Amino acid sequence: MSASWRRFAALMLVAAFLGVPGPPAVAAALSDAGFFGRWSGSAWTVGPRLNYAHAGLKPVESAVKAGDYALAKRRLLDHYRSRPAIEAGGFSHTAWPGAIELTPSHIWTLGSGEVHVRTLTFGPGEKTVTADVTSSINSGRTGFFLMSRYKDAVIALINSRSKGSGKPTLRLTLADGSVRTLVPAHDTYIWAAKPGNVYGAKYYMQVSDQGAGPFTDETRKAYLRFDLGSVTNVKKAELTLTGTADTAKDIMLYGNAETFDEATRTWSNTVQNTFSWEGDPGGFDWKLPGGADAEYLYQLPRFYFAGPLALEYQRTGDEQHARTLIGLMTDFIKDADAYDADQGAGSYPGNLHAARRLQNWIAAYEILRKSPSLTPEANVAILKTMNRAGLYLEVNVNGTPNKMQSQKITLLHAAVYFPEFRAAPAWRADAAGFLSAQLDDSTYADGGYKESTDAYLRGYLRQYVDVVAFMRRHGITFTATAKLRQLGRFLMDQSYPSGYGPAYGDSDSLDLRSTLRSLGELLDDPELLHAGTSGTSGRKPAHTSALYPDTRVAISRSGWTTGDSHLRINADRGNHGHPDELAITAYAYGRPLLPDMGTFTYSTDARAKWLRLTTEAHSTIEIDEQPQTSTAAGGISHLISNPAFDLIGANTESSAGVRHERSVLSLHSGLWLVSDRLKPADSAKEHRYEQNWHLAADANPSIRSGTEATTTAFATGANLTIVPADPGEVASTLRDGYYAPRFYSVEDAKYASYVKTGAGRTTFDTLLLPSKGAADTSATVDRLPVSGARTHEATALSLNGGAGVYYKSWTTKAPRAFGAYTFDGKLLYADAGSIVMVDGSSIERAGTTLVKAPAAVKDLAVTFDGDGTVRIDGSGLSASTDPATSIAITAPKAAKVILNGAVVPFERAGALIYAAA
């Protein structure tokens, strides 16, 4: 059976369920009879899509039965103009780049990477113009591009930085009153007729556009990028350009946040986000222009500009805005909404896009329905399309959670807003049932989200907050509050202590707090409320660190305040995920120190492909210069959580022929130790292992010769030191990469690369040392031999010249000696103020007992405060002073013992104390 027949059959079933007395019309263009129905004698020969039993539609029904469809259209518009307001839902966007000024001219900008600042005029002759670009600079857009406002034959020549005089300048007035004037670090132009040519060294940047369609061979656009370095606190920014044109030439100035190299930029390698159909009598063609990001095809038909235009009409009453939006809606219907055998009418170009468009159209219709610009013909055309879109959303199935959720939310809004539609009751039942059930399908058993991205999870939860409240207002039952709470807790755990997301997968770093706060209020959950208000309301979560074994994510967190630390490691998989298994993101002292490097765009741009599709772009180990696959075994093997530390174990076989195991010791006192072991299936085969540590664009990293330690040098705030254990065995370099802190924004960024090549089992051991201020440039790591074990069996390190020691057994535990220590467990960390032990019973240093337990202890942390307080933390420990059953701890200065947060008695035997068993 063909797709069209399957869809027809599905619609017939819907019709039968609703008791429609005749077959619905299915055709390339829905006829008036197909929408209003056709009455013959005493029966409907074509079933109407309107429910004439609804109050107010009797005059419409009478006109239809009389065969007067023109009258029916007028009466239907009269009905909607007089109908009381019904909640129409919200717009997907209430603001959009250039929407009010430029959309009527059919100029469209994808996303927010390019934001219209103003239109400048050059010519006749040479002119110098200055534009206030303060908002652009302060929003992180330190680049600009120039594009012709109108399609005409005039070419503007804008002076470049290569010209002797009249160079472009950016004048910055800082908060302290000082002034800095910059020239571009790079400027150039691109030309459609010569797609491979580079113009970065030219004296002039050319800007022109003419002809029909989004561009022609005569389309030329100019780009400038300024390097602000460490400039902050900009009070005012002014861009000055000098140019010439034969006659007056209007040029649109946009701010952007994209880095580029003038020596390599061409039309072919530029991802363009703004296109113009100005003056084209056909307007938008609703298709993907050549050279555009693939998202262009989706975002334009979603009608993101409907919100700004409709709201401006509502605010001003200016009919020009209503005429523009109604014209765009009817143009879309004419150009793109023909029946498609595979998709169905009302669906172009499919699933989420149809849902977003219907969402925006419903909200716009509530504003436009009383506009004098809305004719009976246009009204019916819009209603027909919305009706067909609802039928499509009811039967379409998509495996991606956020897409299906959006479809059913929009369907529910359509059901409530259009009770006149005969299908509305079925839509209401279908959407409400789906939205309650979908949380089970979109989450793992542990409550984690099946899409590997925190930005999409945030949006998913935000939509649930809104739709559950909507359902409650309209008496619709939502039955999955427990599952919604669980998923909200998952997002809460992912969030940095600052409240922002770590931006894993296809994400940018977003503030998660408003979503968490709204969830907390909706579900009456004090912990979500606490996280969503940065602790000003609610109750601090009872846990810090968290393991999601099914989702394959672990988080080590020292607390819930901005100054606490947060480390995330994953082996997760799912839609919108990256090949980043065992990657680490880390935050401390108010800053992401090992951020995820972001996404940039979904385009084929080389930078976006590197960010999204390579393992090299993540803080993990890339094997043999190939990206990981997402089909092999892997997961988080354990999280041992203690108030003083966490120990995480993870593994993946996502690189062919090699198993990667990663262990992370996270000390809440302020450092991380990462141990990696690579186990090739063929021990004789040589492999290349590249351990990468990714840093923000303004980290200013450097590598210290000898120790090969990488240190960051942020201008203010926290920094990081990365110290490898085997500096003589790795090839260490700072490599060029990219950082996309938000979509449609990308910056050059350096990252630290440590490479080992060899056969057999290989290890990396790395100290990650955060600091509140300047990075610690004196930190050292030296490998200690371990008795009876090779490095891939057990590893031991001396930290900072012996100030600390670290040991990890990769194999079964056994008493082993390293440096001055002897230990019989799985993991040990010790320094002058603390001891951490996992699955061990005995620690000796230089023959002296530090810890001695009658049996192995799962986890133990002992902290020695300067005032004589000894803090003991561990799973399953209870107070005991009996030397026969309790743990002996060397603490000659002990004056008070706190066990798992409570003061307990202790007994002393020489230098040893007994307080816990």
TrEMBL record:
GO MF assignments: lyase activity
Gene3D superfamilies recorded: 2.70.98.70, Chondroitin AC/alginate lyase (1.50.10.100)
One Pfam match: Hepar_II_III_N
Entry keyword set: Lyase, Periplasm, Secreted, Signal
The UniProt record lists the keyword Lyase: yes
SUPFAM superfamilies associated with the record: Chondroitin AC/alginate lyase
InterPro entries, sorted: CBM96, Chondroitin_lyas, Hepar_II_III_C, Hepar_II_III_N
Signal peptide start-end: 1-27
Entry annotated with the keyword Chloroplast: no
UniProt domain Carbohydrate-binding module family: residue ranges: 181-269
Gene Ontology cellular-component annotations: extracellular region; periplasmic space
Subcellular location, record wording: Periplasm; Secreted
Domain Heparin-sulfate lyase N-terminal stretches: 280-519
Domain Heparinase II/III-like C-terminal: 573-743
Full protein name: DNRLRE domain-containing protein
UniProt source species: Nonomuraea thailandensis
